[in-house]
Amino acid sequence: MDFSVITNNLSYFLLGAWPHGPLGGAALTLVLSVCSALASGVLGLVFGVALAMTHGAAHQALVLFLGFFRAIPVLMLIFWTYFLLPIVFGFNVPGVGTVIVALSLIGGSYLAHSVYAGIRSLPPGQWQAAAALGLGRVQALRYVILPQALPIMLPSFLNQWIALIKDSSLAYVIGVGELSFVATQVSNREMVYPTEIFLFVALLYFLICSSLELGAGAIARRYGTAAKPT
Amino acid sequence: MIVIENVSKWYGKTRVLDHCSTRIAQGEVVVVCGPSGSGKSTLIKTINGLEPFDEGRIVVNGVSVGAPGTNLPKLRAHVGMVFQSFELFPHLTVIENLALAQVVVLGRSRDEARTRGQGYLARVGLDGFADRLPAQLSGGQQQRVAIARALCMDPVCMLFDEPTSALDPEMVGEVLDVMVELAGEGMTMVCVTHEMGFARKVADRVIFMDQGAILDDCAGEAFFGDPDGRPERARQFLARVLPH
């Protein structure tokens, strides 16, 4: 094995063409991941709370809407937003934006159900106790339910965000130069080092995902008191 | 203070409350007893609207509980409730448990809420427990915190839903002592309980329920002192629960 192919192209793997061209490589993977992690987290919270607070037809409509995004492959959603949106709305969506929107919608739909499950996992007595003290439903949610449910949801968020980091590699289909895309480029150019290149790429993904896991673990320990059961 | 008129409730086809009627006056202590599944807890939870009902009328302090326009949170803010399983908020310390609704619902300042909370903690004998988490307290201590939490809201009446049923026997006394003291101060109280010793000591009136209906509603002395005047079901119940 000859790892000089890695050292020779290191800057391209990590940053793409930047600073002479657009940001790419591992850095772009990070940007895509952080943006869609944040957006999917917000969407998941909003839709999860909406699932918990709605009944009947509104609830069913929401379940269907979320079910749609859970059912279609990320790849298809990326294709759709990239090729269909310009036709429907008449403007071009940049590739990076497309990927972030697609990953956020799908991640958010998964997370919505985790948030909903976390809220429902609390004993109904907690809602009743809050109500008996005169708290409205929104106040009960904000001060009593979510502070207990969020620590329970943390592992689900982590799972989803790790899945999302890896799904960001699908951005290569619309030519967004993230880590997998630049790796394929280098591999095609050099022709004879696929083993070295993709071992290195796997290592980078492993490092990114593990550091997220370590970071989340540290946060969980820092705020661990909130997660203690009665 | 509390008027319950012809209240009925169904879960599907099962009738859980059957034309219940009673009146509870200011300062009165009423004990609700009866076999499990008789609708006691359901009845007490209709009083602050935690359980909706299908027929009849309930008026608390002049406010109709079931009426469409009623501001239930506002009503509940001044009707204290104590649950069988305490239901303290486990992520908050004792003093935060006491302060939360005072700040969020009544709009008191944090300092005022905490000062009041400290006062009621002392009254239930838990001075010095303010900064503990509920999980660090015994069941009896948790239930006393729950009573203090309700009292912080200046309730016009207190509802107790089997407050000692989830406690180890040696902790029942400390909770009942707080309740006896409260009754002595003239608090209007409705208590669902199996503690007949407590009922005998403080109940102005005893309501006996079976299968969702109020079968007996009489003065405490009559309930315990005049078994022959009781309906058959109440007599059987008393024979089982009273110590021989």
Alpha plus pi helix count of chain A? 10
CATH homologous superfamily annotation of chain A: MetI-like
Overall CATH class of chain A:
Mainly Alpha
Poorly predicted spans of chain A: 225-230
Q: Count of DSSP E strands of chain B?
A: 10
Structural class of chain A: mainly alpha
Query: What overall geometry of chain B do the principal axes of the alpha carbons give?
Result: globular
Based on the structure, what is the oligomeric state of the protein chains? heterodimer
Rounded to an integer in angstroms, the radius of gyration calculated over CA atoms of chain A is 21 Å
- The shape of chain A, in one word, is elongated
- The low-confidence runs of chain B, each spanning 5 or more residues with pLDDT under 50, are none
Number of domain modules of chain A: 1
Which topology of chain A does CATH recognise? MetI-like fold
Mean pLDDT of chain A: 91
Strand content of chain A: under 5%
Number of helices of chain B: 9
Order of secondary-structure elements of chain B:
EEEHEEHEHHHEHEHEEHH
GO molecular function (chain B): ABC-type amino acid transporter activity; ATP binding; ATP hydrolysis activity
Pfam family, one (chain B): ABC_tran
InterPro entries (chain B): AAA+_ATPase, ABC_ATPase_HisP-typ, ABC_transporter-like_ATP-bd, ABC_transporter-like_CS, MetN_ABC_transporter-like, P-loop_NTPase
Keywords (chain B): Amino-acid transport, ATP-binding, Cell membrane, Membrane, Nucleotide-binding, Transport
